Structure formats: structure tokens, C-alpha cells
């Protein structure tokens, strides 16, 4: 005689669950499943802010993450950078994470060099590199920007660049875009940069970190892109306004199809687990245990 | 050619790590140990060249280190940096059990500096500003009069914060009205934990999507 349903459900091999999750991600990727993404106000606020910046505005980008969270952080980093450059803002790229420089280089290669080859280094954009010191570094940037960044990432004297004229402190920026995945990250940019410098901070973070940052929205944080969903929402807003960026700004949108299917499968497993639990409880009651 | 090698190494290491989902095996162990070793080496080399040389040794002896790092060559020696160098050397005293206590001087300096720097900012941004963000009008008023959406949002924020605080107030027994508010506080906490869990699931799946996407590119190069 076969075991009751709840016992069979409780004994499901975990490898079958892994396989189901794997397939739920792989199949939509192979089939190129695309689902509609609608930007929410918390993401739209960042888009609207960058959209409202006049040409020549200074936007400071800090890419504080590493390769381990690239699937979540890189699409949002590249989409916001692309948008700022499309609005002819002057962009400053830096990081307070030692693993950040390769992510910046990738963004420069994918966005600046491919989509904006006419922009001049040192006049329209600059790569400042990594600075140690965590929140202490942000504190130092608030007091004396060029005191910390005495050179760009390639070792050239900082005052030799036209883009650095008039930059003495974080206060001289129109917007800080902090893309992060942990400590130090967005929270430190709010505490040590945005709040004391009175500069709006727009953030993009991994999904794990997003719930920790909601309390700062909307007074201390202009907007928040939470995980892949946040990145996909930003890309959707960007493509709606600038359709010619659809090919290069769809990284997160493409990944949201598999993401959604995987969520459905996980929800099904949660439901099955609960069904097994209640069936077992009923069986115990019947047996008088 | 170099890109191909990087792609193959990355793909094979990814498959080695994924093999753990079936069961523990030597391939997984190899990839895991390799990752730990490479990470440690990366952090050490990156810290040396991006922090120790430009921020400390380059400022103490710019001419000597200018050959290694041209960006520090033009500077003048700044002997104030001998103090952090000295404190850094004291940290190495931990390597010997008898002299380990000396490193506490450096630790005291580091902790004191961090506490002093962080305290004021945390008070401003995480305490005062957060309280300020919670003081909201219960009735939201928009352009055309009563804004229902804003009113609901403000009630949820104010009510949720207050009930959450009451749940953590242990000087009064959680009975009667206090108990009911504390019970509402538990619901607020549960919703928060649920949202955090949902986001965590989303984050992990995103990473899986990223990896499978990478493996897809690798397979495209083969077939």
C-alpha cells in the first residue's frame, strides 16, 4: 500500500525542488519569455529627477558592489548612467568598494564608449576610482573632495580636468546615484553624504538590502530601485522615453521573465508544503494523537 | 582567445559549484577552496595597492615610491602619516601572545574614531530624521481636498510605527488596550519580515538567472 499524500509530499527529494527551480529559470530564458513591467512611483522619482536635470548638471555615481551581485546591480547602474549621459549631465564615477572598479570599467565600456563615443573624458565624464575608508571616505568628500581624490583612477592630476572645476565638496553635486549591495553603501551615502550635504540621493540596491532602506524614502532618499525588479522598472521608464536604447537597456527586463516563473514555482511549493502540513495535522487528529 | 579562456573557466567553475545541489563532491570542494584563496589574494593585493601604498607609504616617501605609483611622485613627504604607520605596526603585536595587549592601543584609536564619527551622523540621519519622517498628518489633504490614498498611507505609517514600538515596550504588561496595540505591532512586524523574505527570494533567484544567463552565453559559443 502506498503512503498517504502528506507523507509523500514531506518526503519529496530536495533535488527535485532544485531541478524545478532550475527549469523554471532556464526554460523562460531559452524561450525568451518577456513580461510587462510597470514602473512604480519609487523608481519613477529617480527617472523624473534625472530627466529634469539641465545639461551640465553634476551627477556623482558610486558603484559600491562586486561581481557577486552584478546581475542585480549592473543593469540599474548602466541604465541610470545611460540616462544621465543622454541628458548631457557631467558624470563622476567612483566607488568605496575594492571590488567596485571592474564594475565601473564595464559600465564605461558598455555605456560611455558604445552609446556616447563623442563625449570627452575629463570634460563630460571622469573615472575617479576607488577610495578606502568606507563612510570616512564619504565624510572626507563632504569636507574636501579633491583632498581625497588627488588624482583620477589613472593617476592623472585631478585639477588638470575641466570637469573638476568648481567641485570642492559633495555639496557641489546636483545628484548622488548610489548603487550598492551592502556596507558601506546607500545607507552611508544618506548618512554621510546626502543628509549633511543636502544633496538628493537616488539609490539602487540588491533585493536583500531594499527593505532596510524603505524607511529613508521619501524624505532622505529620492527614490529606490530594489533588486532586479527595480532595475527592470527603470529600464522600462528609460525605453518609454528613449526607445532607441531598447536593445542595450533591456538586461533586467529580459531577466524578469524567468524571475516571475521561478516565483510562481516557489509559491506552488509553499502551498504544497502547507497542504502537507494540514493533511498531516488532520491525520493525527483522526488517529487521536 | 583570452576571453574564451575566461568564459570556459567561469562556466566550469559555475558547474562545479552547482554540482553541490546534487551532493557534496571533490569538484565542488575544489571550486570552493579556489574561490576562498582567490578572494583572499584579491583583497590583499587590492588593499596593498589601493590603500597602503597611495594613502600611507606614498605620503611618507613619495619620491621613493613614485616609480611604483606615479600619482604619488609629485607630493612632498608628510611625516604626520608616521602616526598611522606606527599604530599599524602595533597591530602586528597580536601575532605574539605576550605582546598582544599592545595592539589594544590601535584598536582603541580605531573604535574611538569610528564611534565619534558615526555617533553624530546616526543621531541625525537614523534618529532625528527618522522620527521627523514619522510625524505625519493623519488626514492627508491634496489639491482637491481630502486625499484618501495619502490618508491611508499616513495612517499605516503612524499606526504601524506606534504599534511596533508598543510591542517592544516591556515596562507594562501586554494586556487590555496595550495588548491589542502590541498584537497589531506583531502583525506589522510579520508583514515586514514577509516583505524582507520575499525580497531575499527575489535576490537569490536574480543571481541564479544571472548565472544561467552566463552559462547560456557559454553554450552559444560551443554550439
Strand tally of chain A is 6
Largest sheet features of chain A:
6 strands, parallel
User: Which range best describes the helical content of chain B: under 10%, 10-25%, 25-40%, 40-55%, 55-70% or over 70%?
Assistant: over 70%
As residue ranges, the low-confidence spans of chain A are none
Report how far the terminal alpha carbons of chain B are from each other. 17 Å
Strand arrangement, major sheet of chain B: 1-2
Order of helices and strands of chain B: HHHHHHEEHH
Please state the structural category of chain B. mainly alpha
Order of helices and strands of chain A: HHHEHEHEHHEHEHEHH
What would the principal axes of the Cα set say about the shape of chain B?
extended
Query: In CATH's first tier, which class of chain A applies?
Result: Alpha Beta
Order the strands across the largest sheet of chain A as they lie in space: 3-2-1-4-5-6
Q: Low-confidence spans of chain B: pLDDT under 50, at least 5 residues?
A: none
- The radius of gyration computed from the alpha-carbon positions of chain A, rounded to a whole number of angstroms, is 23 Å
Strand content of chain A: 5-15%
Average of the residue pLDDT scores of chain A: 94
How many H/I helices of chain B? 8
Please report the total strand number of chain B as a whole number: 2
**Secondary structural class of chain A:** alpha/beta
Q: What topology emerges from the helices and strands here?
A:
The complex is a heterodimer of chains A (289) and B (223).
Chain A: H1 5-10, H2 14-31, H3 41-52, E1 58-64, H4 70-86, E2 90-95, H5 101-115, E3 125-130, H6 135-143, H7 145-148, E4 175-180, H8 186-197, E5 201-205, H9 210-213, E6 223-226, H10 227-241, H11 251-287
Helix pairs in contact in A: 2-11, 3-10, 4-5, 4-10, 6-8, 10-11
Chain B: H1 2-18, H2 26-60, H3 62-65, H4 70-73, H5 82-91, H6 103-134, E1 141-142, E2 145-146, H7 148-167, H8 176-222
Antiparallel strand pairs in B: 1-2
